[in-house]
Amino acid sequence: MEKKIPVIGAVIFIIVLIVALVMLYQPNSAPREVLLTDVDNGNEIEVKKGQSLVISLDSNPTTGYTWELVEQPDGQILQQVGEELEFKPESDRIGAGGTQTIRFDVVGVGQTALKIVYHRPWETDVAPERIYYIHVLAR
Predict the structure, then answer these.
(1) Residue 8 lies in a domain
(2) What CATH number is given to the structural domain containing 99?
């Protein structure tokens, strides 16, 4: 009788360990951030409520060009984090290009679109250098 108790305890321990490992190593089906770049332009993007949508685009503001959000998404679905697109230079050199990033929190479900243009804001009669447009499907 004495040997059965340690065996049962060992079996229970192994089962608990296996369950814990399976739960620990299950792949996360929804990453916290969904990162989009130039290659996603024109696509439909699927996100989930609670995620963040981060768009990072090549830019060089020293030339006068900057990305600007011109078509606001539905605020019941996406809410912009911060007011401006943040710029991160690729190096410390004067005039270096880099990336501009805009962030949104997915706060609801539904469909919306957003449009960002790369232009010189003071050139009002000139077409944008580039247009970035995505359709967002939030679940």
Answers:
(1) no
(2) 2.60.40.2020
Which pairing describes strands 98-106 and 110-119: parallel, antiparallel, or unpaired?
unpaired
Q: What is the pLDDT at residue 55?
A: 97
| Residue numbers of the domain that contains 112 | 30-138
Do strands 78-89 and 66-71 pair parallel, antiparallel, or not at all (unpaired)? Answer: unpaired
CA distance 82 to 54: 12
* 25 in a structural domain: no
pTM greater than the 0.90 cutoff? no
Contact between residue 104 and residue 78 where contact means Cβ atoms under 8 Å apart: yes
Token duo for residue 66: 């900057």
Helices (H), the chain: 4-24
Rounded to whole angstroms, how far apart are CA atoms 15 and 6?
14
Q: What's the domain count of the chain?
A: 1
Sites in the chain below the pLDDT cut of 70: 1-11, 16-17, 19-30
Q: Can you give the pLDDT at residue 116?
A: 96
